[in-house]
Amino acid sequence: MLLEERLSQISQIVDEQGSATIDFLAQKLEVSKDTIRRDLMKLESRKKLHRVHGGAIPIGKEAEILNYEERSNISSNLKKKIASKIKNLIKDHSTLIFDSSTTVEASIKQLDDLSISTITNSLTNAILLSKYDKATVQLLPGKLNKNQLFLYGAETVEKLSQYQVDFTILGVFALSNNGLFIHTQEEGIVKRKMIQQGKQVIALADHTKLNKEGFFKICDLKEIDYLITDEEIEGELMKNLNDNNVKVVTINE
Asked: Locate the HTH deoR-type domain: which residues (predicted)?
């Protein structure tokens, strides 16, 4: 099978099925997994699909608004790898704000042996933190988003303004040269305030969230201090991150 024919078949399979794993594509097309990985990189460069951990999804699906359980199940192993880098940055007796991201939930699990004081608007993260003997947790007030299990609104923002913490840790929905983005204004306003109240801001994002934008802009690149991701960043985005003094940490470092 010629290369272009194979690329066309891969693109069609991913579009029709909504996703496809590297293992499935290799078996289906009778080629090696390494060949499929190279094919997916080529198709992503042509904007035919987006690569995710272990496979690919169609263009646009990464911006789909999923409920908390669905988000938690997507690329869970990759989230754990990204989250594992958190422990190198957080010290004992730190104060932290956590947003409602599932990648942030994975990062909290790396801090179970630290004495930390925490603030969050996430029901899931508050319950998780309550299990750690050395952690204190302040659950922010507000209106409950029943689908995503986070609290938001004027009361949430007002309460956040009373705190100043060492670190704000947040998951990224979309990040580009123009800044960080989210799909709803209600969540974006809370994240923006969380960033303002942190002395240092750590953003967590896999490669599918990069060079993307969303409905609501949270902040400029200069307002984050660290970006933890899974792949090396190149080109204009990397230049802008450097220009804005953002330290990029990858899972292979």
From this structure: 3-58
Q: Where are the domains of the chain?
A: 3-59, 68-250
The fold for domain 68-250 equals Rossmann fold (3.40.50)
From first to last of its 253 residues, the chain has per-residue pLDDT tens of: 789 999 999 999 988 876 788 888 999 999 999 999 999 999 999 999 888 657 787 876 544 444 445 544 555 677 888 989 999 999 999 999 999 998 999 999 999 999 999 999 999 999 999 999 999 999 999 999 988 899 999 999 999 999 999 999 999 988 999 999 987 888 999 999 999 999 999 999 999 899 987 768 999 999 999 999 999 999 999 999 999 999 999 998 7
Exposure b/e, 117-140, CB count within 10 A at least 16 = b: ebbbbbbbbbebbeebeebebebb
Which of 142, 158, 249 is closest to 206 using CA atoms? 249
**CA 147 to each of CA 2, 67, 151: distance values in angstroms, whole numbers, following the listed order:** 45, 5, 11
Under 8 Å between Cβ of 49 and 16: no
CATH of 3-59, one of 1.20.1250.20, 1.10.10.10, 3.30.2350.10, 3.20.20.70: 1.10.10.10
Report the predicted TM-score, pTM, of the whole model to 2 decimal places: 0.72
